[in-house]
Write a structure and sequence with these properties.
- By secondary structure, this protein is mainly α.
- The termini are far apart.
- The chain is built from 22 helices and six strands.
- Helix 8 runs antiparallel to helix 9.
- The strands form two sheets. The protein has a three-stranded mixed β-sheet. Strands 4-5-6 form a three-stranded mixed β-sheet.
- Helix content is 67%, strand content 6%.
- The longest helix is centred in the C-terminal third of the chain and has 35 residues.
- 32% of the residues are buried.
Length: 481
């Protein structure tokens, strides 16, 4: 006899089916679901919108807002009586959050700020102009307002900006029982924390007790007897990239943040660091492509053009420099037309080789794997790699170029051999220079106090183009003419 399905199982199947309707196979929001939400917004029906999105995580709702048009987002805010949920605002991407907050009623934004931890509240307000910030904070109760203003006073992307001011700290003479009782009776606790910080009379952190350790010990145990003293204290001025490195290097779950007097003022948890890593990775990736870090899909045409124009202008200048090198050898190109066909190959191979080395170098600098102590060895290695690749591709391309030149009937066997030798020699020199440029340019920029990810690519490609054209055309003029 078959057994009837359990009621809970049926409910779980229904929920799973509803979730499948919301998402495509790759966990992106399905087109049909987004269309249904768009219809609900156009109808001005907030209840239908709430019904459609009731099972969505705030992060998924934030993604949904990114898929809507600007007019639809403004209409949604209008039918939601001028506001969106606080946890949704905290999940919005940088390029979208400012537009959404600007469209919301300041009172609704203030209500969201009160609900959020100070780091998330600062995250919501940080890109607004001073007048808009003041308008919103004027609606926030004094205690929360002072905390958010203090967070906004720190430099963007510093530990002080991203830390939470909500934490739990206790003196070392407290017992496990006292702490557990306080945790149970206190409502004003962080939404998420993993350790109790132990402080001295000056409120300086001297250790930490993981919550798992706390729950395993007898109530009468003093916490200074079980605390860990290996905590990594983070100064409020530390850059968030350095914070992320410390968490990765030492497998931290949370860490205390201290001011200039070494007093405990906040904490950073691993979920904050995940967001930092995402931001830094995205920033470096965009910078390598010559795109500003705050560029997003919700930007207008004018904003996108403005953000990309400057680097395109720099690339135009470098392209003109490379063309001047070509113009210098116009006589050689006029006599040997094959040079015009082959010279882009030499420059392109150098550019790709330089980009490979540059990508590895920028990543290694960011992760602190490439330091002054091992820089000489890495430079030597990249030079050898460039030389080896240059010799291999010189043999391949030199043979192909000579054979093609001879079979095309443009010259005799001796001229074909000479052209192949020129191509091979130029390939060796350019790939060697590409390897060196790919490692030396980011190291030089770092030493000069600049971000290697921002401007390295344009310098490396300039080197490979200029060297490639100059060496190839110069050798051709000297050997073949």
């Amino acid at each position: 006899m078959s057994e009837a399905p359990h009621t809970d199982d049926v409910g779980e199947d229904v929920d799973a089916a509803a979730e499948d309707a919301q998402f495509a196979e790759d966990r992106t929001l399905s087109t049909d679901f987004v269309d249904a939400v768009s219809v609900a917004i156009e109808k001005g029906d907030p209840l239908e919108f709430e019904y459609l999105t009731k099972d969505l995580h705030p992060a998924d709702i934030a993604d949904l807002l990114g898929l809507l048009s600007e007019d639809q987002r403004e209409r949604l805010i209008e039918i939601k009586e001028g506001g969106l949920a606080a946890d949704v605002l905290a999940e919005l991407d940088d390029d979208l959050r400012e537009d959404v907050v600007e469209a919301m009623d300041p009172t609704k934004v203030a209500e969201a700020v009160v609900e959020l931890d100070t780091d998330d509240a600062a995250f919501v307000l940080e890109d607004l102009d001073a007048e808009k910030q003041a308008e919103i904070l004027a609606e926030v109760p004094l205690e929360e307002r002072l905390a958010v203003r203090a967070a906004l006073d720190y430099e963007e992307e510093s530990a002080g900006r991203v830390m939470q001011r909500e934490f739990f700290a206790a003196p070392g003479y407290w017992t496990v029982g006292q702490i557990i009782d306080r945790l149970r009776s206190t409502e004003d606790l962080p939404d998420r924390f993993y350790e109790v910080f132990v402080v001295d009379p000056a409120f300086k952190p001297i250790g930490e007790v993981p919550l798992s350790t706390l729950l395993k010990r007898p109530r009468e145990t003093r916490i200074d007897e079980i605390m860990l003293t290996t905590a990594r204290k983070i100064p409020v001025t530390m850059d968030q990239e350095e914070v992320a490195y410390l968490f990765e290097q030492y497998n931290l779950i949370s860490s205390p943040v201290v001011d200039a007097s070494d007093r405990l003022v906040g904490m950073i948890t691993v979920d904050d660091v995940v967001e930092m890593v995402r931001e830094e990775t995205q920033e470096d990736m965009l910078a390598l492509g010559g795109v500003e870090a705050d560029t997003g899909l919700s930007d207008t045409v004018v904003e996108t053009v403005r953000s990309r124009f400057s680097w395109l202008a720099v690339n135009l200048a470098t392209a003109i420099l490379a063309s001047l090198v070509i113009a210098f050898f116009d006589g050689a190109i006029g006599q040997i037309v094959a040079l015009a066909v082959l010279m882009p190959i030499v420059a392109s191979m150098g550019g790709n080789a330089g980009t490979q080395t540059l990508t590895v170098a920028v990543r290694s600098i960011a992760t602190k794997d490439l330091t002054p102590s091992n820089a000489a060895r890495i430079i030597w290695r990249e030079a050898l790699v460039g030389l080896a690749n240059g010799m291999l591709f010189a043999a391949i391309m030199g043979a192909l170029a000579g054979l093609w030149y001879f079979l095309s009937g443009w010259g005799d066997q001796a001229e074909a051999i000479g052209l192949g030798a020129v191509v091979g020699a130029a390939m060796i020199v350019n790939l060697l220079c590409a390897g060196l440029a790919g490692i030396l340019v980011p190291l030089g920029l770092q030493r000069a106090g600049q971000d290697p990810a921002v401007s390295s690519a344009v310098f490396v490609t300039t080197v490979t183009d200029v060297v490639g054209f100059f060496v190839f055309l110069g050798l051709a003029a000297a050997v073949l003419l």
